[in-house]
Amino acid sequence: MKYFKNMSSRIVIGSGSDAFSARNPPHFMNFIIPDIRDAIYETEAVIDHLFYHPNVAPFISRRIIQRFGISNPSPRYINEAAVAFTRGVFRYQGVTFGDGKYGNHGAMLAAIVLDREARSAVLDADPTFGSLREPMIKLVAFLRAMEYQSRSAVKEISFLDLTNKIGRMPHESPNVFSFFLPDYTPQGSIKDTSLFGPEAQVQTTPTLVRFLNGIISLVDFGLNHCYGGLGDNTIRLSLCFHDQGLACNTPPSLYSSGLLKYQPSSFDRTSVVDELSLILTSGRLSLSYRNLLMDIIGNASDILLGIKTAQKLIVASPAFHSTGLLHPLLSEKGVLSTPVPSIRPYKAVIFVNLAGGIDSYNILMPKSDCFGAGGKDEDYKFVRGELAMDRSAMLSINASSSTQPCRTFGIHPALTILQQLYRQQDLVFLANVGVLQEYVNDTNWSQKTYKTQLFAHNIQQDEISFVDMFRRTAGFGVCGRMLDIIGRLGFKTGSSSVSGVAPGMNIIYP
User: Fold this and answer.
1) Is residue 138 a contact partner of residue 321, using CB atoms and an 8 Å limit?
2) CA triplet 436, 437, 439: central angle to 5 degrees?
3) 230-253 pLDDT, tens per residue?
4) pTM exceeding 0.70
5) Which residue, 165, 200, 222, 373, has fewest beta-carbon neighbours within 10 Å?
6) Could you tell me if 262 and 145 are in contact, meaning their C-beta atoms sit under 8 angstroms apart?
C-alpha cells in the first residue's frame, strides 16, 4: 500500500486587516497515471468541502424560510434553523427531531415551522412580515379551496403557457436562478427599507392581470382556454380550435377539463363571506371588504351568482396575494384629469436589456484607418486572437466625422438593420459603458470597486439599469434620466415596459 502526501497548506493574500487566506483544495489525482478511483475521491472531497462550508447552513435555512412565507426572517430565526441543520437535531417541548447528523433537513424544518417567528399571530400585523404568495401556489390553493373536480374523461390537469400568463410553471424555470431571486427587492418602500420581496419579481402588471383573467374564466367556465383561461385547449376539432366563439359557447360541462364544485355550508351572506375569507385568505380579509362583499351577495339576482362574484373579488383583493395583515387606505383616490395630447411628432427611445452574456467586441469593432493613442488597425486581431472577426465579413459604418480613434468601424454581418439605422442617423453606438469608475487591475480591483459587485449577476443587472453605482440619484434609472431631460425640453414623455419589472424605467420629475 502506498500513501501519497496531501498536506494542508494555506495561501495568504494581502496583509494585516485586509489579509485573506484559504487552504489548498484536496488533490488526489495522479497526472501521470489518472485513475477513476482517484477521480471519485477528489470529487467526494470537493462535495464535502462545499457541503460542510460554514455558509451552507444559514444559506439553505434562509431560503427555505422564505419558501415558508417569510421573506425577511430575523437573524435569530435563521440562526436557529442553521444550528438545527448543523447539529442535526432539534428539540421542542420534549419531542426530538433529527438523527444528530450534520445536514439533517428534518431537524432544520422542525426548527423553521415550530419557531415563534413562524407561529406568532402578533407578527402578522407587522408590515414587514410575511411575503407575497407565489403565483402557482395561489392557483393551486384556489383550485383546492373551491373544490375543483376534473371531468371523468380527463386523466390529468393540463395548463396552457402559465409561464407567460402568470409568471410561473413547474419545471419551466427561465434560467439557473429559478423564477425569481431570493434577494430581489421591488422598487418603493420595500427597497428603501432594505427589505426583500422575491416573489414580486414575477408579480408584474401583465402577469397579475392574466392571473385575474384566468381566475374569472375558471369561476365562470371551468378550466379551459376560453376568455383568458389558464387551461389547455380541450376541443381539438379544427373549426372549434381556431374559433374561440364556437368552442367557448359549448356548455362548460362538455369542453372544460373540470369545474369548481364549491358550495358554502350556509347560504347566509355573512356566513358565506366569512367562509370564503377563511379558506381563501386565512381570515385576513378586512372588515370594510367583508361588508362590500355582503352587499354584493345580498343584491345579486341569484345567490350562486353572488357567490361567484365574491370569489372573483376576493382573488382581486390584496389579502389573497400576501401572507400578512393589510391596512386598507380609508381615503379615496382623486379623479385624474385627462392629459392634453401633444401635437408634436412622436418619437420613441427603446432600451433593450439583454438578460444573458454578450460578446460586444464581435458586435461593434474597429475596422480600418485607426490612428493615434487609440491603436493601429491590427491591434483588434492581435488582442482578440482567434475570436476576432474577419474584416471582410464586417458591415462598415463611417465614423470619419467623429473624434473616434478609427475612421471606419465594423458591426456583425447579421446586424444589417443596425447598419441601416446608423446610416439614417436613427441609431448611435455607446461603447465601453460599464460600472467601473476608474482603471483597475487584478491586484487593486477589490479596493476600487467596493461600491458595486463585479461578479454578482443580479447586482450588475441593477447597475446597468440605474447607472448610479454611487447612489447619488437613486431611483432615476437610465430611461428615467432620459425622460427627465426630454421633459425639461418641453416634450410630453411617458414610459412603459414589456419585460415585467424594469427598474431602469423609473422616472422622478423635479
Assistant:
1) yes
2) 75
3) 987 665 443 344 445 555 666 766
4) no
5) 373
6) yes
